[in-house]
Design a protein that fits this description.
Layout: E1 4-7, H1 11-23, E2 27-33, H2 40-44, E3 47-52, H3 63-73, E4 77-79, H4 89-97, E5 101-102, H5 107-114, H6 116-125, E6 133-134, H7 141-151, E7 155-159, E8 168-171, H8 177-192, E9 197-201, E10 206-216, E11 220-232, E12 235-241, H9 248-264, E13 268-278, E14 288-294, H10 301-308, H11 312-320, E15 337-344, E16 346-347, E17 353-354, E18 357-358, E19 361-363, E20 369-372, E21 379-380, E22 387-395, H12 398-411, E23 413-415, H13 421-428, H14 431-434, H15 442-445, H16 447-450, H17 458-468, E24 481-482, E25 485-495, E26 498-507, E27 510-515, E28 518-524, E29 528-530, E30 533-534, E31 538-541, E32 544-547, E33 553-557, E34 573-575, E35 580-585, E36 592-593, E37 598-604, E38 607-612, E39 617-622, E40 629-630, E41 635-639
Parallel strand pairs: 1-2, 1-4, 2-3, 4-5
Antiparallel strand pairs: 6-9, 7-8, 7-9, 10-11, 10-13, 11-12, 12-15, 13-14, 15-22, 16-17, 18-21, 19-23, 20-22, 24-25, 25-26, 25-33, 26-27, 27-28, 28-29, 29-30, 31-32, 32-33, 34-41, 35-37, 35-40, 36-39, 37-38, 39-41
Helix pairs in contact: 4-5, 12-13
C-alpha cells in the first residue's frame, strides 16, 4: 500500500479520495489554485501545494506542475479523480516516466476508449453490441448527411471526444441537419479542441444504463448497473442503482458485455461502460447498445458503493499498489436500492443558469450521505463546475430509498445562492419516476412543472417579516407594548420579483402580521407558532433571510431610503446572466433586431448560452468584444430607447 498519494483534483471528489485514503492510513497531498486556497479539500489533506491561477488551464490542467508537486512532497502515486486530467493519456505517460503510479488505467486503455468512433469499432470486435451509426474519418458535410439518411431519422450528432452532453445535437428531420452539425462542431471544438463528430441512430424511448467495472489489467468484474436516465440536456440529475425493471437475464447480459469491454483493453482500476437501452417494451437482452466507456471513477459511484458495500476508492488504491482484485464476481451481491441527487448552484426558473456566490449556510440531514467539497462560508467559483454536493440515500427497497431521498432533500439547508434543490425535490416526487417509468426524455416532457419555483405561504412570509425586524427571539417581559395598545410597525421584503409590505402589531408574546388581505397570528409557547404551525428554521445574513421551507425561500429586507439609488435600464440593457467568456458578439451598432434574436453567445461552465434581444429595437451600443471575460450582471449590449 502507498504511504502517500497526491490528488490531482479539487472539490468533492478530492475530499472523497482523502476520506478513503485516510481510512487506509495513507497520507494525502492536495493541489490548489488561487481560487481554492481556503477550500475544504486543502483543509482536509495532510499537505497542500499551490499550482497556479484560478482558470483550470493555469492550475488543474498543468500536468507538469502536478508531477513536480508529487515529487517534491514524496508522493508515490497520483489519483486523478474525474474531469481535468483523469482521462488524458498524455498525462499518464509522464506520471509513470517520473517513477510515480497513476491510480487508474493505462494510457493505452484510455486512448482505446478516448474517441467514440474508434471505441465502437473496438467493441464490435469484442462482441459488444453497438448502436447503428457512422463512425468514419471522413467528416465532409455531405458524407455525414448521407449517413444520417441511411441510418434513418431521428439521429444524434455527437462529438467523438469528450462527454457530458457537449457537442451533441438531436436532429429529427433532414432539413435541420446542417445547422445542428455546425453547432455541434463549434461546441465540440470549444470543449475538447476536436470538432470531429459521429452520427448514430436515436433510440425512441431511451434509457441510460451503465455498468460499473473494475479490472486488474488482465481480468475484470462488474459491480452491477446504475440507471442514469433522469437527464436534462444530456446532463445527469438523479442516478439510482440498481435499474428499475431490470431482469436477471438482462443484468447478466449487460454485465458480461461490460466485462468483455474492460478485458478487451486490459483495463485496470474503476471504469464505467455506458449503454443506451430501448425501454419501449421493457428491458430485454437484445435491447441495449454500447455508447462509451468512461475510463475513470464516475460522479455517481456512491450509489454502487451503497448497494454493494464496496469502497471503490479503496479498491483503486489497493489494485494500483499491486494487490489483486479484492473480490471475485460471485462474491458481489446487490443489497437494497440507492439514489444520488446532484445539488447545484443554478437558477432553475431562469433556464438552469449556473450561479455563483458565497454559501452563507450549508447543512445536510442525518441519515443521508452528502459528498461535498464546500462548507458554510465557501464561495461557488465561476471557474469550476457549480456542484454543491451529491445527496445519497439507501434503503431496503426502491420505494423506501426514494422516500428517504425526498426527505433528505426537504431537510437540506442552503443559503446564499440559488440552487436546484426544489427541482430535485419535484423530480423525487414525480409520479412516473416514483413508479420507475423513466427515460431520458422524462424531464424535458414535464420541465414546466418540474422547474416551477415553490410559492411561499402566508406563514413563511409572516415569519420572514418577524425575522427581518428581529422579532424571532423569545419575548422578554412586556416588550411590544405602547401604553395599553399593541405596537404596530411595517417592513418591506423582496421575494423573487415580488415586493411585499407587512404590517406587524405586537403585544407581548403575540404578533399579528398582515400582508395584503392575509393575516397570520404568531404566538410563543416554547417556540414561535404561526397559525398553530411551528416556525421554520432560517438563516439571516444582513438583510438577506432564507427560510428552510419549500426547499428554501429567500427574502431580502428593503431599505426604502435606498430605493432612489436603485436603477436599471429596463428592457434596453442586455446583461450577462452569469460569469463567463463572450464567445461570440453577433450584435452590431445600428442593427435592427427583433425579440428573441441571438445577439451574443456566452460560454460558462464549458457550455454555450445564447443571449437574445428582449424586444424589437435598434442596437445603440456594443459594450464588450469577443473574448471578453465578464462577471454576472455586466452590461453587454444597449438598445436604443423606445419612442
Amino acid at each position: 500500500m502507498f504511504d502517500k498519494i497526491l490528488i490531482a483534483n479539487r472539490g468533492e471528489i478530492a475530499c472523497r479520495v482523502i476520506e478513503s485514503a485516510r481510512a487506509l492510513g495513507v497520507k494525502t497531498v492536495a493541489v490548489y489554485s488561487d481560487a481554492d486556497a481556503a477550500s475544504r479539500h486543502v483543509a482536509m489533506a495532510d499537505e497542500a501545494v499551490h499550482i497556479g491561477g484560478p482558470a483550470p488551464s493555469d492550475s488543474y490542467l498543468r500536468g507538469d506542475a502536478i508531477i513536480d508537486a508529487a515529487k517534491a512532497t514524496g508522493a508515490q502515486g497520483i489519483h486523478p479523480g474525474y474531469g481535468f486530467l483523469s482521462e488524458n493519456p498524455d498525462f499518464v505517460e509522464p506520471v509513470e516516466a517520473a517513477g510515480l503510479v497513476f491510480i487508474g488505467p493505462s494510457a493505452k486503455a484510455i486512448r482505446a476508449m478516448g474517441l467514440k468512433d474508434a471505441a465502437k469499432a473496438l467493441m464490435e470486435k469484442a462482441g459488444v453490441p453497438v448502436v447503428p451509426g457512422y463512425h468514419g474519418e471522413d467528416q465532409a458535410d455531405a458524407v455525414l448527411s448521407d449517413a444520417a439518411d441511411q441510418i434513418g431519422y431521428p439521429v444524434l450528432i455527437k462529438a467523438v471526444a469528450g462527454g457530458g452532453g457537449k457537442g451533441m445535437r438531436l436532429v429529427e428531420a433532414p432539413g435541420d441537419f446542417a445547422d445542428a452539425l455546425a453547432s455541434a462542431r463549434g461546441e465540440a471544438k470549444t470543449a475538447f479542441g476536436n470538432p470531429a463528430v459521429l452520427v448514430e441512430k436515436f433510440v425512441e424511448k431511451p434509457r441510460h444504463i451503465e455498468v460499473q467495472v473494475f479490472g486488474d489489467g488482465t481480468r475484470a468484474v462488474h459491480l452491477f448497473e446504475r440507471d442514469c436516465s433522469l437527464q436534462r440536456r444530456h446532463q445527469k440529475v438523479i442516478e439510482e442503482a440498481p435499474a428499475p425493471g431490470m431482469t436477471q437475464e438482462m443484468r447478466e447480459a449487460m454485465g458480461q458485455a461490460a466485462v468483455r469491454a474492460a478485458e478487451a483493453i486490459g483495463y485496470k482500476g474503476a471504469g464505467t461502460v455506458e449503454f443506451i437501452v430501448d425501454g419501449s417494451n421493457g428491458l430485454r437482452p437484445d435491447g441495449f447498445w454500447f455508447m462509451e466507456m468512461n475510463t475513470r471513477l464516475q460522479v455517481e459511484h456512491p450509489v454502487t458503493e451503497a448497494i454493494t458495500g464496496v469502497d471503490l476508492v479503496e479498491w483503486q488504491l489497493r489494485v494500483a499498489s499491486g494487490e489483486a482484485l479484492p473480490a471475485a464476481q460471485e462474491d458481489l451481491i446487490i443489497t437494497g436500492h440507492a439514489f444520488e441527487a446532484r445539488l447545484y448552484a443554478e437558477d432553475v426558473p431562469a433556464g438552469f443558469l449556473p450561479a455563483t456566490g458565497r454559501l452563507a449556510h450549508l447543512a445536510f440531514p442525518d441519515g443521508a450521505r452528502a459528498d461535498t467539497g464546500v462548507r458554510s462560508g465557501d464561495v461557488i467559483s465561476p471557474h469550476y463546475d457549480p456542484m454543491i454536493a451529491k445527496v445519497i440515500t439507501h434503503g431496503p427497497t426502491r420505494d423506501i430509498a426514494l422516500k428517504r431521498l425526498s426527505q433528505a432533500l426537504e431537510q437540506t439547508q442552503v443559503a446564499g445562492t440559488v440552487t436546484n434543490l426544489a427541482f430535485l425535490g419535484a423530480l423525487a416526487g414525480h409520479e412516473g419516476f416514483s413508479k420507475g417509468d423513466v427515460d431520458t426524455g422524462l424531464i424535458g416532457r414535464d420541465i414546466d412543472a418540474l422547474a416551477r419555483a415553490p410559492q411561499a405561504g402566508a406563514e413563511d412570509i409572516a415569519w420572514a417579516g418577524l425575522v427581518a425586524l428581529g422579532l424571532d427571539a423569545a419575548p422578554q417581559g412586556l416588550g411590544g407594548f405602547t401604553l395599553w395598545d399593541g405596537l404596530t410597525r411595517s417592513v418591506t421584503l423582496r421575494h423573487g420579483e415580488d415586493e411585499l409590505t407587512l404590517r406587524i402589531t405586537s403585544k407581548g408574546a403575540e404578533h399579528r402580521i398582515a400582508a395584503g388581505d392575509q393575516e397570520v397570528t404568531a404566538t410563543y409557547l416554547n417556540g414561535w407558532q404561526l397559525n398553530g404551525k411551528a416556525a421554520p428554521a432560517f438563516h439571516r445574513d444582513g438583510d438577506d433571510i432564507t427560510l428552510f421551507t419549500g426547499y428554501g425561500h429567500a427574502f431580502t429586507r428593503i431599505d426604502l431610503l435606498d430605493r432612489a439609488a436603485e436603477g436599471g435600464a429596463g428592457g434596453n440593457l442586455i446583461e450577462a446572466p452569469m460569469p463567463g467568456l463572450v464567445k461570440s458578439m453577433l450584435a452590431e451598432v445600428g442593427q435592427q433586431v427583433t425579440a428573441g434574436m441571438r445577439l451574443a453567445v456566452l460560454e460558462a461552465m464549458k457550455m454555450e448560452h445564447a443571449l437574445t434581444a428582449p424586444r424589437d429595437g435598434v442596437v445603440a451600443e456594443v459594450l464588450v468584444a469577443d473574448g471578453a471575460q465578464v462577471e454576472a450582471g455586466a452590461p453587454l449590449i444597449r438598445l436604443e430607447e423606445e419612442e
